[in-house]
Amino acid sequence: MNIKKLMGIGAQANLMNFNFGPRLVATFGQARLVRLPAGRYELQGGSAADAAAAREWCSLFAPEIVFSMPRPLRRQGCLV
User: Fold this and answer.
1) Per residue in 62-79, pLDDT tens?
2) DSSP letter assigned to residue 2
């Protein structure tokens, strides 16, 4: 029997076992540092103090991580 068939890999690989969503890297208070599927990092939620803690942590322990803050959602028809 073919070993690839036994392991369930090959041309018809089951992609349901792969995680295609954001992956949590670390949390800082209410802020979450996540890695997006495209390879970018983003800090979601939290306050300005949480963002400062995340930037300090990244500068010490993961200097290759440069993250962005998510854009605020715009509501149609109202001025905020």
Assistant:
1) 999 988 876 665 666 655
2) -
